[in-house]
Description:
Blueprint: E1 2-4, H1 7-15, E2 21-26, H2 32-44, E3 47-52, H3 62-67, H4 72-81, E4 86-88, H5 92-95, H6 113-117, H7 121-136, E5 140-144, H8 148-160, E6 166-170, H9 190-195, H10 198-211, H11 217-228, E7 234-243, E8 257-266, E9 269-278
Amino acid sequence: MEIFKDINSLKEWRKLHSNKIGLIPTMGALHKGHLSLIRKSKQLCNQTIVSIFVNPIQFNKKKDFNSYPKSIENDINTLISEKVDALFLPTHNSMYPSKYSTFVNEEKVSLGLEGESRPGHFKGVTTIVTKLFNIINPTDAFFGEKDAQQLRVIQRMVIDLNFDINIIPCPIIREKSGLAMSSRNRNLNHADFNNASIIYKGLKLAETALNSGEKSVLNLKKFIKAKINTVKNADVIYVSIANSETLVELNKINSNQILISVAVQFGEVRLIDNITYSFS
Length: 280
């Protein structure tokens, strides 16, 4: 595996490969969810490149940025074992030089959910992903469905800015308990790690209610909140039931496919999860 820390050397590597290039953008602290993206890329592409960069401008709290888990040596060993072709490991100054002043902003899909809870977050996401797309010029890019709003924002951005890149969504990978795998899980203490499975149980409860004919958005949200609140240290930030494509919040079920998503705080750790529900 080749490791590139500067942009020019990576661009020179890219010139040598005119075939299908798969990109997995990450902030490191790799887990099995990331590995599923890598393995999908290796199935579909001739070359696979992973980027690791903890992007400061997508954090709206400095404390959250500073506490984000980092394990670069383990990450490199993991990528080597997965036979990844290249790793892009840029410095802050290479991505955001001292006079940097240009940002990319999506203004519809990004407004609710995480965008409302974390002001400025998606401006940071779209800016860094645009830069990675321009630097690496991948043919395909792989994103996990756990970050459902991020996936839709990137899909919208690729259409609006005419990127010639295929965005490949990949399913959520879960612990045996149902907890969605996330780098932030590393910051959970043992009790919270076990208790955080309540998030998925809440989502599954809503799915069961829908299967039984429940159509009240208000009731579905109540079911989810009540389930999650059975765990003492779980603080529900939001429960959303929205059109799966536009992420417009629903007052009643009038969409063929809905996204049910939640954000929950466990101590200092903020977790998100979601399920998609389709009506036949």
